[in-house]
Specification:
Blueprint (H helix, E strand, L loop, with lengths): L2 H10 L3 H9 L13 H16 L7 H15 L4 H10 L7 H8 L5 H10 L5 H4 L2 H5 L4 H17 L5 H5 L1 H8 L5 H15 L3 H15 L4 H14 L2 H7 L10
Helix pairs in contact: 3-5, 4-5, 5-7, 7-10, 10-13, 13-14, 13-15, 14-15
C-alpha cells in the first residue's frame, strides 16, 4: 500500500461520533482526527506488513528503507490515525535518536504516547536509554513517555533484569508529585506493571506503593493507594506466583 492509498483508506473510515467519544476520554490531539478505532488501524497495519513480507526474503536495503520512510511520512501527515499507524509499521532497526526526539516533541495526546511506547519504543535500545531524560521533561506528554515506556517494557521485554526495573523506582517516586493527570496516571501504570512482572518485583513495588500512600501530595496518595490495591489483589498474586525472576542477585 502506498501513502495516498493509506490516507484514503483511513479517511473512508472517518467517524465524527468516535471523535467526540475520544474527546470525552481525554484524547484531543491538535492534528486532524478521523475517529478511526485502533482495531481498524491495526488491520491496516497488518495489511501493510503483509505486503512488505510478500516481497523476496532477501529484500534489498533500499526496499526496507522505503518501508520505514512510509512510516515517517505517515507520522508527518498531520492526521492522528496515520500517526498511530506509523508507530505500528515503523522499522525499529531504522529508528534513530533524532527521529525519536522529533516524534516525542509532537506528542499531543495520551494515546499516541502509549501506542508509540507499546508498538515501537519498547523495542528500541535507543529509546530505553532515554528514559531518564524523558522523565525530566517539562511538557506533560513528553514526560508521560518515560513512564508509559517503563510500563511497556515491564510487559513486553522478557530479557530485562529485575534490577533494571528497580532503578526506575527512584524516577517513579520523584514524578509521583506531578499532579498533571496524564503524568500521574502513567506513573501509576509503570508502578503497577513493574509490580506485576514477578513476585520479587511485586514485593518491591508494593513497598513503594505503601510509602507513597503516606505522603502529603494528593497525586502521591492516589498513586500509592491505587497501585497497592491492585498489586496486593488475589488476581495479581495468583498470576505472579510462579513467574520467573530475572536476577540471581536481587
Amino acid at each position: 500500500m502506498e501513502y495516498e492509498e493509506i490516507i484514503k483508506k483511513l479517511e473512508s473510515l472517518k467517524n465524527p461520533k468516535n471523535v467526540d467519544g475520544m474527546a470525552r476520554f481525554g484524547i484531543r490531539p491538535k492534528v486532524k482526527v478521523f475517529g478511526v478505532p485502533v482495531p481498524e488501524i491495526r488491520k491496516i497495519a497488518k495489511e501493510i506488513k503483509k505486503s512488505m513480507g510478500s516481497r523476496a526474503s532477501h529484500r534489498l536495503a533500499k526496499e526496507i528503507k522505503k518501508d520505514h520512510q512510509l512510516a515517517l511520512k505517515l507520522f508527518d501527515s498531520g492526521i492522528h490515525e496515520a500517526r498511530l499507524l506509523a508507530t505500528m509499521i515503523a522499522d525499529v532497526e531504522k529508528l534513530t535518536g533524532g527521529q525519536i526526539e522529533k516524534w516525542i516533541k509532537t506528542f499531543d495526546s495520551w494515546d499516541i504516547v502509549d501506542q508509540a511506547c507499546m508498538n515501537l519504543l519498547c523495542k528500541s535500545d535507543i529509546a530505553k536509554k532515554k528514559i531518564l531524560d524523558f522523565s525530566k521533561r517539562k511538557k506533560e506528554f513528553e514526560k508521560r513517555t518515560a513512564f508509559a515506556l517503563m510500563a511497556s517494557l515491564a510487559v513486553h521485554d522478557k530479557k530485562m533484569m529485575d534490577k533494571d526495573f528497580i532503578k526506575f523506582f527512584s524516577l517513579i517516586k520523584k514524578a509521583s508529585v506531578d499532579e498533571r493527570n496524564f503524568v500521574k496516571k502513567a506513573v501509576n501504570w509503570a508502578l503497577r506493571q513493574i509490580g506485576k512482572r514477578n513476585k520479587k518485583l511485586n514485593i518491591e513495588a508494593t513497598k513503594l506503593a505503601l510509602q507513597l500512600r503516606l505522603k502529603q501530595a494528593k497525586s502521591e496518595k492516589w498513586i500509592g493507594n491505587d497501585a497497592y490495591r491492585e498489586l496486593t489483589s488475589k488476581s495479581v498474586q495468583d498470576k505472579i506466583k510462579n513467574k520467573k525472576i530475572n536476577d540471581k542477585d536481587f
